Amino acid sequence: MSLSSVGADFFVPWGAGSNAALVDARIGVALRERGAAGLVGLRSRADVLAAAHLLMPALRAHRDSDPDGLTVIRDTGQHAHRPGFAGLGHGALLAHTEGTQAPDPPRLILLACLHCGQAGGATVLVDDRAVLGELASLQPAAVTALMAPRAAYFGGAAGRLAPVLERLPTERWRIQLRQDGLAKFSPAVQPYLPALRAVIRRNTATLRLEPGQAVILDNHRVLHGRSSFTGDRLLLRALGEPCPALQLEAGFAPPPDLLSSAGSEAEAARL
Ligand SMILES: [Fe+2]
Known about the structure:
Blueprint: E1 11-13, H1 19-34, E2 36-40, H2 45-55, E3 71-73, E4 93-96, E5 108-116, E6 119-120, E7 123-127, H3 128-138, H4 140-146, E8 152-154, E9 160-162, E10 165-167, E11 173-175, E12 183-185, H5 193-202, E13 204-207, E14 213-218, E15 222-226, E16 229-230, E17 233-240, H6 260-270
Parallel strand pairs: 1-2
Antiparallel strand pairs: 2-14, 3-17, 4-15, 5-14, 5-17, 6-16, 7-13, 7-15, 8-9, 8-12, 10-11
């Protein structure tokens, strides 16, 4: 199962039966196998909040979130050119991890569409399990560079150094990345950025959410972004940690085509 083939089976009907059973079954399986699931049937803010609480019992507050924990993502007409606020404009957003300023970015993101706008506004999804596999095959040295503890600096004055690719003690992996003006990369990483961006492009899926549709993403595996848009587009976003029923282990399983050579080089980088 891959995100590159987001089809009709991607969306799970929410509210048609036992939502708790859905969390146990289809949504948990989809998140574990491909890092994302779609929901359909979230028609109101109350619907979105109820789904968010079932999937993520404790929502994580964000700089822009409302008291109920949800963040309204729309073009405010005031934020487009402020670093770190591009989500509140109407421009394209390059694929990124949510919350890279924090040492522990939230594990899950729920993005629910209430209004889809006039044109554009496609949601961009990138499965980094596939990115890691392809990069390890084509440029294993890139994986090594991206694993360095100081591979990237995310954020402004209060930002932090971080690896882009991280191999956990369990041999599972985690990614964190942003590609806007609040990301800087080490000299060792910079030669590999074109290759990384090319692999990301090849593993990008896009879908245009309709009102009532939502995606739930594993933020430690799947990057998200959007294309530019016109009109009154309004999404609601929730961030948090997964409920136990989703059975998400930390990180994601290594891709099958991860070469042993990349693993060896990566091991050298970790020492
Ligand atoms: Fe985002």
